[in-house]
Amino acid sequence: MGGEVILLDVWSSPFGVRVRIALAEKGVKYEYREEVLDNKSELLLKSNPVHKKIPVLIHGDKCVSESLIIVQYVDEVWKNSPLLPEDPYERAVARFWADFVDKKVYESATRIWTRKGDAPAEAAKDFIESLKILESSLGDKSFFGGEKLGFVDVALVPFVDWFHAYEVHGGFSVAAECPKIDAWAKRCKEKESVSMASQDPEKILMVVERLKKKFGYV
Ligand SMILES: N[C@@H](CCC(=O)N[C@@H](CS)C(=O)NCC(=O)O)C(=O)O
């Protein structure tokens, strides 16, 4: 399947980072277009009319949205360096954990910095608990994908750059609470596809502070 590849994205988006890592793993050349979410481009509105969110992958005349769906599309179109396992059951398991990242990890992490009063502490507890569950799923493997980066790694690793902001607002340390996740994160960062897409945690903290003010979470 041919066609020009364009990624509509925002530099700080963990969802966009997923797609950037997947494209890098496959060696796909693409044009990166930075969106301004306060002033979305016509192309973004046209290519993701339902959610109007980044990331959107444009492949020739096709538009794919929702980061985990985009990563799966990328994995199916560019078959080198597979991210999902071949076995249907193993694929289902990988999809389950990627979905867990969205439903539990991202959800609790977001509550840490968007809520007031006792809620951030409660959210921090849920966040740590979800990371501990992921630690059990990782077991003794180097990556969730086994010896190589896989779908679950791509789903989770973009949030590592956000850990610092979560720690500042939640009052905990991922390294102290979840040493296996900390070691896994360091292994992931050694991969070029991951390090190239990584963002400075201090800059992410600034993004969080800006969003807190903008949406009145302070
Ligand atoms: N579930 C979506 C989430 C994407 C998302 O939340 N994108 C945010 C930026 S990080 C966005 O475009 N927000 C713009 C808006 O909500 O209007 C995915 O996995 O791609």
TrEMBL record:
Protein's name according to its UniProt entry: Glutathione S-transferase
Q: Which reaction does it catalyse?
A: RX + glutathione = an S-substituted glutathione + a halide anion + H(+)
* Gene3D superfamilies (alphabetical): 1.20.1050.10, Glutaredoxin (3.40.30.10)
Record EC number = 2.5.1.18
Q: What does this protein do?
A: Is involved in the conjugation of reduced glutathione to a wide number of exogenous and endogenous hydrophobic electrophiles.
Keywords attached to this Swiss-Prot or TrEMBL record, sorted alphabetically, are: Cytoplasm, Transferase
- Species of origin reads Amborella trichopoda
Output the lineage of the source organism.
Answer: Eukaryota, Viridiplantae, Streptophyta, Embryophyta, Tracheophyta
The UniProt record lists the keyword Cell wall biogenesis/degradation: no
| Family statement | Belongs to the GST superfamily.
The protein's matches in InterPro entries, at most eight in alphabetical order, are given as: Glutathione-S-Trfase_C-like, Glutathione-S-Trfase_C_sf, Glutathione_S-Trfase, Glutathione_S-Trfase_N, GST_C_Tau, Omega/Tau-like, Thioredoxin-like_sf
Every copy of the GST N-terminal domain together lies at 3-82
Domain GST C-terminal: start-end pairs: 87-215
A molecular function GO annotation = glutathione transferase activity
Question: Tell me, which GO biological process terms does this entry list?
Answer: glutathione metabolic process
Q: Where in the cell is it found?
A: Cytoplasm, Cytosol
Gene Ontology, cellular component aspect: cytoplasm; cytosol
